[in-house]
Design a protein that fits this description.
mainly beta, 5 domains
Amino acid sequence: MRKIFILLLFVVSTALGQSVSISPTDPSHLIISKPAGTAQLTLKGESAGEFVAAHTKINLEGWVPYGNSTSNTINFGNQYNLIHSIITGSGAFPGDFGIYRSSVPLLYHSFNTGLELVSTTFKEVKEDLAVFYNTQALSAGLNSSIYFKTGNYHTGGIKTTGTGSNAARLGLFTSAGTFPTNLVERLSITNAGLVGIGLTNPNDLLDVNGRARIRHNGATAGIWMSNSTNSLTMADGAFYGNKGDTETGIWIGNGWRFWVNSTGNATITGLAGTGTRNVYADANGMLTTTAPAPKTDYYSVAPASFKPVYNNSGTFTADDLYSQCLMSNGSTDKLVAGINLPHGATVTQIEVYYTNTIGAKRFDVSLYKSAYNDILTSTVVSGETDQAGVSSNDIKSNVFVVPNPSVGAVNNTTHTYKLWISVETTAGAETSWSSGMGIKGVKITYTL
């Protein structure tokens, strides 16, 4: 039978211009050659009927004694081979099938490991080791995908999605489901290198949609921020995170500068010192324990704020045609007005505005304070006007300075304050009001 088969091959090959021979060194080695063109061997199954299939098969069957190994091989020149290894014996496995270059495996399948790519150190390799190629032109929404499947479920995927004709993003997908469409894009890297977690269109180098948690097993967690030097030393940057298990704050300038504990109490090291002190905010919003420089402010006493002290002499006008208050001609009454200055203020001076056409008379103006538990009053500042005008609309003014700041200190917890105005002669004797005399108002200057 073997001779007949070889004879048939010889006849067919001769007809095709090929030669069939047996290797002189290996009787099992059948050689088909052709001097020019392509030497070929065709196995063709002819159908015996319209509905009868025909098959072809090439079997490479090796035999190996129990406990040994061998292989079936197809060689492509001296460089590449298809090799199937055969191993027998107790606990043995069917062997491996692979593509080899010489004896180095490039791609192989082991009976229990699936398809495996083997790392190569061939320096002459210029192309990618593996390319997953969508032949369509890149455009928005076009995908190239790799899916992972376990049992009946698609468990993950890696996919590029076109975002334009020359741009795409890379996505990592999870959320196991029956179909690839059940997978959800969890992490995205844009064409520009921006990374999004929970969103596909990040606007920053790292853009997270939702809450992020930073953990540090055995120590407190946080984020380090480098300064412009990009140094990794602790002094060149800042740390935002937990100071301890019950405190969180800011480390900067090589030390903790601010932190708040779990009960809501905050600590600012820049305010540390001796004792309990007030904390102030300057014009720039900076907190400090240094009291700001006193600010000068003003308190105005309008004419209508005054009233007669005794109301037993003449008529009181709170606001006449010249916006001044006065007593009628001949009245001996005095004027008084309650003053409500800010607690802690210090009065520095008062200035009275008035009209007076009577050269022989003047106003005596006093700012008094009266203790809640004392029937007596004491003077903060007082003075007498010294100018006379030519008409009822010729307004004059005098300034009376508080001689001692401690006297001008306002303490609303212990005292009340009032302005008192009376008429007297230029010699200092009490006298009555005259027509042409009136009070336009009093301005009290204080610091706080």
